[in-house]
Specification:
Elements: H1 6-10, E1 25-27, E2 34-37, E3 40-43, E4 51-53
Antiparallel strand pairs: 1-4, 2-3
Length: 78
Amino acid sequence: MNILNEAEKNQGYRLLFDGQTLDGWAATSHPEGWLAHNGMIICKGGTNGYLYTRDQFEDFILQLEYRTELVVNSGIFF
C-alpha cells in the first residue's frame, strides 16, 4: 500500500498520499476533522467539508481503495 514499483516510477506515476501524513492535502473546512492513520486518510465523524490535493492535475489515472460506513454521504470528486 502506498508504494510505487519501478515501472510505475519510470512511467511518471506519483503518490498522492504517503500513508503517514496529510502533506499535500487541504480541507475546505474543519481541517482538524481529517487525519492520516495506519496508512489511511480518515474523516472523523461529524466533519463537514472536503479534503483535496493542493496540486492540480490535467491528465491522470486515479487508483485507490475506498471504504465508508454503511450510511454515508460521501464520494470521490474530480
